[in-house]
Every structure is written in structure tokens, then in C-alpha cells.
Hints:
Oligomer: single chain
Number of helices: 5
Helix content: over 70%
Amino acid sequence: TDDISNSITMLEKISINYKDSSNIFIAGLTNEFENQFNEIIRSIIGKLKETLENEIAGKISVYEKQIYDNQSAETHTLNEIENFKIKSRDNLAKALENIEENYNSQIKLIEERIENIPFMEKYNSQRSFSTNMSNNFIVAFIVMIIGAFTGHSTGEESHGLNAFFSGLVSSGIKWGLISFFVGTLISLIMSAMVLIEKADEKQKLIRKINLFKKQKADALNEAKIYSEHKEKVTLENYNNSLAQYRKNIKDITEQRDFVRNNLNKEASEKVKAFEDLLAPLLN
């Protein structure tokens, strides 16, 4: 440094100018000059140590930066893991909610259809029976009239209303009643078929509801499995990255310490050699 250079220059000039002097004042300052000289030597040694330490710090800073970069990457990855877990839970919740809403809306529509079955015209057994019986009365009446004329034509000769009523009593009423009973039986059968069809339709809709419920359960389960698999794979990748960053930190730290120890050892040897070189001057 400038201070050391100035001190050396000053001592050099004093030594040259007063080396043969017998001046008492100069002689009295001999110890002071020696102390000053020793201080200069110590300053030179200290400056050498400082220079070597700066060189070591410069070489070690490369490793420190690598360690810092890997530590920052590790911290960033940990934050990403937490954010991913939160996002994964939110996405799963939304997916499950959408599945629930979709299937529940379809199930609700079918349940409403089941509730409306008794009010549907095609499944009204009483109305079906009433309509069939009305037709039955008409058919039975027609059969009775035809039977009356048929009985009149196959009986003894008679004319006019007497013949008609005679045929009506002997044949028409019989066939009319037979037609009525057959029609009634058919009406009952058709009403029963309406009831069966109504029950069958209800069972079909119930089976459809059960199918939707099963599909919903399967869809919910598949969504959970998919989310778990995706989370597992993603976390494995994150954990692999974390393991690599931590390995890098460990390896670089060990390498840094090894290099620093060697550099410190070399620096100590240089300082020791320099001190040994200057030792005669201190004596």
C-alpha cells in the first residue's frame, strides 16, 4: 500500500543518510526505527494474508453462487408443490361437483317422470276401462239388435214388431249379454295391461335411475383415481427435482469445503514461507 511504500522509502533515506552518523539524536531513535521497520514487515505480511484471503473468497464465491442457486430452486420447488396441492384439491372438488350436478339433474328429471306417470293419459287404467266399457255397451247393443233380427229370420213366420221382439227375447238379449260380458272381460284385461305397462314403465325409469347412480359413483371414483394418479406422478417429478437440488447442494458444499481447505493450506504455506524469508530482518 501507499503507507507501507512511504514508510519503506523514509526508512531507506534515513538509513542511507545517517548510516555512518554518530549523532546522539539519531542513535536514540534506533529502537524507534527498528519498531517502525518491524511494523512495516508485519504490515506486509498482513497485506499478503489479506490478498490471499481475497483470492480464496473469489474462488469460493463460484461455489457459493451455485449453492445459492440450488437452494433458491429448492425453495421455489417447495412453493410449487404447495400451490400444486391446493390447485389439485380445488380441481378435484370442482370435477366432483360437476359430476354430481350433471347426474343429479338427470336423475331428478326421471324422478319427475315417475311422479307424473299416474297423470299420463296412456297409463290411466280407470279412463281406459271407462272408454272400453262405453264402446262395449255400444257393441253389445249392436250385437243384441243383430241377434234379434237373426233370431227373427230363423224362427217361425211372424211379422212386424212382434217378430222383432220375439227375436230380441229369444236371441238378441242372449248374444247382447254374451257380447257385453266378453267386452267387459276384454276391458278388464286391457285395464290390467295398462296397469302392467304403467308398472313396467315405472320399473324402467327406476332402473335408469339406478344406472345413473352407478355411473355417477363410477365417474366420481374415476375422477378421484385420476386426480390421485396425476398428483402422484407430479409429486414424484417434484421430489426428484428436490432430491437433485439437495444432492447438488451437498456435493457442491463438500467440494467448496475441500477447495477452501486446500486453498487455506496453500495460503498458510505461502505466508509461512514469506515469514521465514523475512525472519532474519526481524531479528
